[in-house]
Specification:
The radius of gyration is 24 Å and the shape is elongated. Helices cover 54% and strands 8% of the residues. It is an alpha/beta fold and 320 residues long. Bound molecules: zinc ion (ZN). The site of zinc ion has 8 residues, from helix 3.
């Protein structure tokens, strides 16, 4: 991917492209932003820039170095991932420290991608600080973290911090259109809206198992009027395992409850189970449920604790 294909964050991209044109990239960068805002993707673009061997504007995207970078096999791009066991522990930082002073293999410089630095413990951070204090020549460090504040002030002061935000819905739609040229625009708009411009989440929504979410939503509706709350709680915990799934299930739940309301007033519905579910509840309760579910869906746009959310939602749906 190239900078021009990155979704949203226009100011950051402009600044970075200027830096790249002038060839004045700092030797240490820290990209911060919520999950799904594209930190790793941007780190990858910067790494590609560092190794690109084209005479044109870098990264060109098609020279042999860019190709290797895109495939993740460039010998001068080294990745340490805090999400992997020992990925950013003190030993791995020491390894980086000793290898960073060795010349690059093929490219004009070496790049270290330190991903998920929020997982890096203070001892490892201190070890890394020593490298930053005496930066090796021809080496660029690109770190990513959910928040820059998870790193020591002494590290932060030695890096250029880049903050990423979710793309605006319209920007996200534009990005999704180029990635999914065959999908309907309305489907892409829905995914961009539901994800609040978070590209990873939007992709999960588009590629995710919408059928699975709908099935779970039907089961949830069936469990609401049962005499004990056990089944409902079980299903809701399953639904809130992760944010992408929770969003999908709540979206589906909004649709399913609407179908049940339609069935209860004798309207036509395309959901086979709607009539049976509606028969188990009063019309008044169904209307109330619809209101509660729509409200619960909107709360999910705020960053809620998913476990608390599951318990709260169970009480909300059971309460008549
Ligand atoms: Zn290139």
């Amino acid at each position: 991917m190239l900078l021009s294909e990155f979704a949203g964050n226009a100011e950051v991209l402009f600044e970075l492209s200027e830096v790249m044109k002038k060839n004045v990239l700092p030797h240490a960068l820290l990209i911060e932003g919520a999950k799904g805002t594209g930190k790793t993707t941007l780190a990858g673009i910067i790494a590609q820039y560092c190794v690109c061997s084209s005479n044109e504007q870098q990264p060109c995207g098609h020279c042999p170095d860019c190709a290797k970078a895109q495939k993740g096999i460039h010998p001068d791009i080294l990745v340490a991932d805090g999400e992997q066991t020992g990925g950013l522990n003190i030993e791995s930082i020491r390894n980086i420290r000793s290898s960073a002073y060795i010349k690059p293999n093929e490219a004009r410089q070496k790049v270290y991608l330190l991903l998920h630095c929020e997982k890096m413990l203070p001892a490892a951070q201190n070890a890394f600080l020593k490298v930053l204090e005496e930066p090796p020549e021809n080496v660029t460090f690109v770190m990513t973290a959910v928040s820059a504040t998870s790193l020591l002030q002494t590290i932060r002061s030695r890096t250029r911090i880049i903050s990423l935000y979710p793309a605006a819905v319209e920007e996200a739609v534009g990005f999704l259109e180029s990635r999914y040229p065959d999908k309907e625009r309305s489907e892409l708009e829905k995914a961009a809206q539901s994800s609040g411009g978070n590209i990873d989440l939007a992709i999960e929504l588009l590629e995710g198992k919408l059928e699975e979410a709908r099935g779970l939503a039907v089961e949830i509706m069936q469990a609401i009027p049962l005499s004990t709350e056990y089944r409902l709680l079980q299903l809701l915990y399953q639904a809130v395992q992760n944010r992408a799934l929770a969003v999908r299930v709540l979206d589906a739940l909004c649709e399913v409850v609407t179908e049940c309301v339609k069935a209860s007033v004798g309207g036509r519905t395309n959901l086979t189970e709607a009539a049976t579910i509606a028969a188990k509840m009063t019309q008044k309760r169904l209307f109330l449920l619809q209101e509660k579910i729509i409200n619960a869906r909107s709360i999910l746009n705020v960053n809620v604790n998913l476990n608390c959310y599951g318990t709260w939602l169970c009480a909300e749906l059971r309460n008549q």
